[in-house]
Amino acid sequence: MATLNMDTAREVLDIENKVDAMEKEFRYNHIDRLNCKECMAESAVIFLDAISNLERITDHSANIALMVLDREK
């Protein structure tokens, strides 16, 4: 069971790094779409808020994973 927890914790950390990169890419692409007037400014706030909140969820998950890994030492 402890091995499974360690493997899962490491996987969470990998996912968190990927989500960080995705959030930056999505934010950049969305701002580019806004500048090109391909979407409405009103929806921009919602979209940017949503991706920011999702990234924060992975940050919290990573903090839990780090605690699991530290606890297993």
Descriptive overview:
With 73 residues, this protein is mainly alpha-helical. It has one domain (2-71). The chain is 89% helix and 0% strand. The chain has two helices and no strands. Helix 1 packs antiparallel against helix 2 (41-71). The radius of gyration is 16 Å and the shape is elongated. The model has no long low-confidence stretch (mean pLDDT 92).
According to DSSP, the number of beta strands is: 0
Poorly predicted residue ranges: none
User: Alpha-carbon distance between the termini?
Assistant: 15 Å
Tell me the fraction of residues in β-strands, as a range: under 5%
What Rg, in angstroms, do the CA atoms define? 16 Å
Kindly report the oligomeric state of this protein: single chain
Q: What spatial form do the alpha-carbon principal axes imply? A: elongated
Helical content (DSSP H or I, runs of 4+): over 70%
Instruction: Give the H and E element order.
Output: HH
Counting H and I runs of at least 4 residues, what is the number of helices?
A: 2
Summarize the biggest pleated sheet: none
Q: Whole-number average pLDDT?
A: 92
Number of domains: 1
Class inferred from helices and paired strands: mainly alpha
